[in-house]
Design a protein that fits this description.
The chain is an all-alpha fold. The protein folds into four domains: 64-200, Leucine-rich Repeat Variant; 204-326; 340-436; 438-527 and 537-571. Helix content is 74%, strand content 0%. The chain has helices at residues 12-19, 32-71, 77-82, 92-108, 111-122, 126-131, 136-145, 148-160, 162-165, 169-184, 190-200, 205-211, 217-226, 229-240, 259-269, 276-291, 293-296, 303-312, 315-326, 330-334, 339-349, 352-363, 367-375, 380-389, 392-407, 413-424, 438-493, 498-527, 533-571.
Length: 572
């Protein structure tokens, strides 16, 4: 008999299970080894449960994705765009390209794709996306063209963290886009719009700090653009307290680096205002700045407010500023570092009458004032600008004053620069000098351009007509050559019915008449044509060869008639 192979334990777990005292009826406490093994079994069971749960979620997600993309036959490009890598290690060009692709795909996607992307990638990450340099654009795109409920969800989540986000450049842009869209469709986002209005109109220490904040003041500028008349009036009343007015917070917007932008926005929106209350409030602010212009002109940031009035302000405000304040203070303000910029803008936008008044009453009224302006390190720039706008007679006076000072050795380095500039540009009318005459110059330029275009068009038409005649002649020549070959073939055959010969003779006569008529039309026009020499030479050669072929055709025509007579005699 064979020896039986003894049973061996091939696995440690089998040994453990056989030796495990917990399976016995013993009530002894388990050892350390027993606790380790039981914890391993427990954790492995938990891990398997998680795997099964993740597998179920993955399968349900696949089914949902297939239902959206495959069953409905939708394009998966939007999902692919959002699945792209937007990590920070990518270059700026790659990140920008991916962001633009997301926006373009979102514009072209259907509602099911948009819903899937919003629920998967955006809904739970709105705050972080609004802070991202590249991804905040997709939030703006959803607010602009996305469904209403998505827009409201985004605006609600951003408002919950508005104190954190309002000072961020990218998140503030999302808020501005939200204000712009909500002002257009206020009924669709009523509660959200009211939340933002209440925040902007709230007079708290936090919102007051935003007036002079680099990023936060942009929200108030956008509010001045989009608010309706009632909310705009309230906002103007709040801002009016801090623009050239005494207040308990010692807050002055007009002289602040970023606060002055709010004042500029009030000047910018003034022509658009219709409501009398808001218009009167804005007018009071503008008039207050004009009355304090002598101080504001010499401030580092406030001078931009005066420049804004000169460039984009109403004509009534501009005239008051120029005639009552700037012209009286022109010499001293031109010699200031910041005031010289305002003086330059005043010369450009003041008009001819005001410039002549300035020249006669302030600049050339005395040699000392002219000498101060020319020799100053800042004032010499507006003086050069004034020279560009003067007429020839005043330029002569200007140059005479400079020569007198130069002969007396009263011109310093800056004065010598002005002298060289005036002499080199004495007879040059620059673009700035033509500002007031553009309306008269533009029609003449347009007329000259139209005449040139008309001449070019006529030349092209003449060229095309001559070329058409030339092509027509070539076609006629080819037709005659085909007829010549046909007659030659008929003569070689010596067998042709009488009717067919008569028909061919008739064709020859018609072709001869057509050729003569065409030659009479082409010859006079060909003499005046613009064809090149090679085309004219070939054309003349074709005419000569055509005459020879016509002569041959007539000879063949006579031969045909002789053959016709011979055939008739044979039949007889």
């Amino acid at each position: 008999m064979l020896n039986q192979i003894p049973i061996e334990f091939n696995q440690d777990l089998d040994e453990f299970h056989q030796c495990n005292s917990s399976k016995s009826d013993s009530t002894a406490t388990p050892g350390q080894f027993d606790n380790v093994i039981s914890s391993q079994v427990k954790f492995s069971q938990i891990f398997e449960d998680h795997l099964n749960q993740d597998g179920d979620e993955f399968e349900s997600l696949n089914k949902q994705l297939q239902g959206v993309l495959l069953t409905e036959k939708s394009r998966p490009s939007l999902i692919k765009a959002f699945s792209l890598d937007m990590s920070s290690y990518l270059t700026h060009e790659q990140l920008t390209k991916n962001s633009r692709r997301m926006q373009q795909e979102y514009e072209q996607a259907n509602n099911q794709e948009r819903e899937y992307v919003f629920n998967t990638y955006i809904k739970n990450n709105i705050v972080n996306l609004s802070l991202d340099k590249y991804m905040h654009y997709i939030l703006e795109k959803i607010i602009e063209i996305g469904p209403i409920n998505f827009r409201n969800i985004i605006l609600d989540q951003i408002f919950t963290s508005i104190k954190k986000l309002v000072n961020d450049l990218h998140a503030c842009k999302v808020m501005q886009k939200g204000l712009e869209i909500m002002s257009l469709y206020s009924s669709e986002s009523k509660s959200q719009y009211q939340q933002y209005i209440n925040f902007v109109l709230e007079e708290s220490n936090f919102t007051r700090r935003l007036y002079t904040n680099k990023i936060g003041n942009q929200l108030f500028q956008k509010s001045l653009d989009v608010f309706d008349k009632y909310n705009l009036e309230q906002l103007l009343r709040i801002l009016d307290k801090y623009i050239l007015n005494q207040n308990q917070y010692s807050l002055e917007l007009s002289t602040n680096q970023y606060g002055c932008l709010i004042v500029n926005k009030i000047i910018d929106i003034f022509p658009k205002l219709i409501d009398p209350n808001t218009k009167s409030l804005a007018n009071e602010i503008i008039m207050r700045t004009i009355q304090n212009s002598s101080c504001l002109i010499r401030r580092q940031y406030a001078n931009y407010i005066i420049q804004q009035i000169l460039e984009k302000g109403q004509e009534c405000h501009k005239r008051i500023l120029l005639n009552n304040y700037i012209i009286k203070d022109f010499v001293s303000m031109s010699m200031d570092k910041y005031g010289s910029n305002v003086a330059d803008k005043a010369i450009v936008h003041g008009g001819n009458q005001w410039r002549l008044k300035l020249w006669e009453e302030e600049v050339s009224v005395s040699e000392s004032s002219f000498r101060k302006l020319v020799n100053d390190q800042f004032a010499n720039y507006p003086i050069q600008r004034l020279y560009e706008y003067l007429s020839i007679e005043y330029r002569n006076e200007f140059v005479a004053l400079l020569n007198r000072l130069n002969d007396s050795h009263f011109l310093n380095h800056h004065g010598q620069i002005v002298l060289k500039f005036s002499l080199s540009n004495y007879n040059i009318k620059r673009l700035a000098y033509k500002v007031n005459s553009t309306e008269n110059i533009k029609p003449t330029k347009l007329q000259e351009k139209n005449k040139q275009l008309q001449q070019i068009y006529e030349q092209q038409q003449q060229m095309t007509s001559n070329q058409m005649l030339y092509q027509l002649h070539l076609q006629q020549q080819q037709l005659m050559a085909q007829q010549y070959q046909w007659f030659q073939y008929q003569l070689q055959q010596f067998i042709s019915p009488i009717e067919f010969q008569q028909y061919q003779a008739m064709l020859v006569q018609q072709s001869m008449q057509m050729y003569q008529q065409q030659q009479q039309k082409v010859s006079p026009q060909f003499q005046q044509s613009n064809l090149n020499q090679q085309e004219q030479f070939t054309f003349q050669q074709s005419l000569q060869s055509q005459d020879q072929r016509n002569q041959q055709t007539l000879n063949y025509y006579q031969q045909i008639q002789s053959f016709q007579n011979m055939n008739q005699k044979q039949y007889e």
